[in-house]
Input
Amino acid sequence: MSPAPPVATPLAVTLGDPAGIGPEIVAAAWAALKASGPSFFAVGDARTLAAAGAPVRAIADPAEAVGWFGEALPVLDLPLEEIPPAGRPSAAAAAFVVRWIEAAVQLALDGAAAGIVTAPIAKATLYEAGFAFPGHTEFIGELTRSSPLAGARGPVMMLAAADLRTALVTVHEPLARVPDLVTEDRIVGVGTVVAEALARDFGIASPRLAVAGLNPHAGEGGALGREDLDVVAPAVAALKARGIDARGPLSADTMFHAAARTGYDAALCLYHDQALIPVKMLDFWGGVNLTLGLPIVRTSPDHGTAFDIAGQHRARPDSLIAAIRLAAEIAGRRRAAG
Output
């Protein structure tokens, strides 16, 4: 993997749900990175961040962020009307949470932010306020849809921790629906996006994909289900026909140990837990969620709002820090590639 050049343009970090752990982990991430970088500015409510323990500096332009980053957390202040108590999500704040995401995405599209890192949101609260998307990933995909993108189009969710990357063919779907949703076209589409992202964003010249089977033992030759023979295997063949180094379907229970991980650069997983369990077992605190196939860089922590510990300064910022660092690395590679 080639090293990423440094990025001078700061990242935009959205506050997430203000009643969750977002404010305190953003403040903690700034404290951990203020001396070394990468530099970022927060998009959200400055009062909430100040209450979380960070010295804040309101900015009017993202270009100001790099100069202030060593002294205070730069904040593009889009203030709440009312700050909800920690641990008590409010539908009244939902419109502001959406506005913060929209603002950060637009700044990234305009080139004023090197990329965006999103702190956790509470989907139930957003749904209550009329939010029409399953989550961040789909919303950001829609916000960037009219922007031109050379190559395959996402959004595709990937989780990364240590030496493991897992990409999802289906995401937040009931397990009973997965067999009908896992189609040859869908696997090929996700695999194409992942292969291009590994080359562009991770500097891997010849990406290798391992495609998980749907059934135990990848169907055991059809004895445990025909989906792996009839859907997954043809999809792998189609990826190979596109010049992508793909193999599978592989038995998911033998794909993720240390020796197996040396044989591929990303695993294509067919449903949520197949992808997330190995990542969280490998590095529960430091995993990163990233969205592939977009015209902007987007990463996030791989955890939720943790309302039960919000405001207690018990939340660890490791995953957010890892997400910020990975976003900066990817942005550096994209910038170098032009």
User: Anything to note?
Assistant: Residues 216 and 251 are 7 Å apart (CA to CA). The first strand starts at residue 11 and ends at 14.
